[in-house]
Amino acid sequence: MPCELSVNLNAVAMLRNRRDLPWPSVERFGRIALEAGAHGLTVHPRPDQRHIRFSDLPVLRRLIDEEFPDAEFNIEGYPSEDFLQLVLSNRPEQVTLVPDDPSQPTSDHGWDFAAHAALLNGVVERLKGEGMRVSLFADADPAIMNAAADTGCDRVELYTGPYGGTHSDPVAAEAWLDRMGRAGDAASALGLGLNAGHDLTVANLPPLVRRLPQLAEVSIGHGLTADALEFGMAGSVRRFIDACAG
């Protein structure tokens, strides 16, 4: 199956929040993305609501249910009880758990699965019991995948930020591509599904897909939103879908 694209709407929401105005509309841009062929929408509602607001979640849930019933909603965040209540209220198809501190500007590392085993085991079991797929944010390290699988999660999402940071260094890019490939292969060998995300672009996504043809989904926000300033949201979604083909 080809790699699917989930469009992260955080950057759209952050631009909206610069003014006390209803535009750009998160719902409208989510609709444009899904009309252009995106498989789903991703949001990361942080406690300070600096981009996605809690009130955005039911709006996007309704958009998918009423207009795009084959699409998926992916909510990511740190598994505090407040976050879990948001998830249970809005019933995403997928929950991606990330080890973010609330003060972080963005996700910048994966879970220490051994250190957080008790927390993750309980949350994964709880969410899967509610019928949701659970993905865990993971560094590109083959050695940690056994501990990831032990949590009972369905998928891991490879943190691709360091790979994105090699945009001007092809030698470093190749080294990170190899590291992510080995990590993804280790996850797949354990029966885990594979997602990826962070700082992926039209340029660096095809080599990743070619190295990891088992990738199920990429979640892309900042790079796609920046691309949309030039090509429009629909045009950028189509560009990234083409990139997902490798």
TrEMBL record:
Gene Ontology terms for molecular function: pyridoxine 5'-phosphate synthase activity
Superkingdom per UniProt: Bacteria
Keyword list, A-Z: Cytoplasm, Pyridoxine biosynthesis, Transferase
Binding-site list for 3-amino-2-oxopropyl phosphate: N8, R19, D199, G221, H222
GO cellular component, one term: cytosol
Subcellular location(s) of the protein: Cytoplasm
Pathway the protein acts in: Cofactor biosynthesis; pyridoxine 5'-phosphate biosynthesis; pyridoxine 5'-phosphate from D-erythrose 4-phosphate: step 5/5
Enzyme class: transferase
Reaction(s) the record says it catalyses: 3-amino-2-oxopropyl phosphate + 1-deoxy-D-xylulose 5-phosphate = pyridoxine 5'-phosphate + phosphate + 2 H2O + H(+)
Site (Transition state stabilizer): E157
EC numbers on record: 2.6.99.2
Any single GO BP term: pyridoxine biosynthetic process
One Pfam family matching this protein: PdxJ
Active site (UniProt): H44, E76, H198
Record: residues binding 1-deoxy-D-xylulose 5-phosphate: R46, H51, T106
Family: Belongs to the PNP synthase family.
Biological role stated in the UniProt entry: Catalyzes the complicated ring closure reaction between the two acyclic compounds 1-deoxy-D-xylulose-5-phosphate (DXP) and 3-amino-2-oxopropyl phosphate (1-amino-acetone-3-phosphate or AAP) to form pyridoxine 5'-phosphate (PNP) and inorganic phosphate.
HAMAP family in UniProt: PdxJ (MF_00279)
Subunit-structure text: Homooctamer; tetramer of dimers.
Name of the featured protein: Pyridoxine 5'-phosphate synthase
Native source species: Aureimonas phyllosphaerae
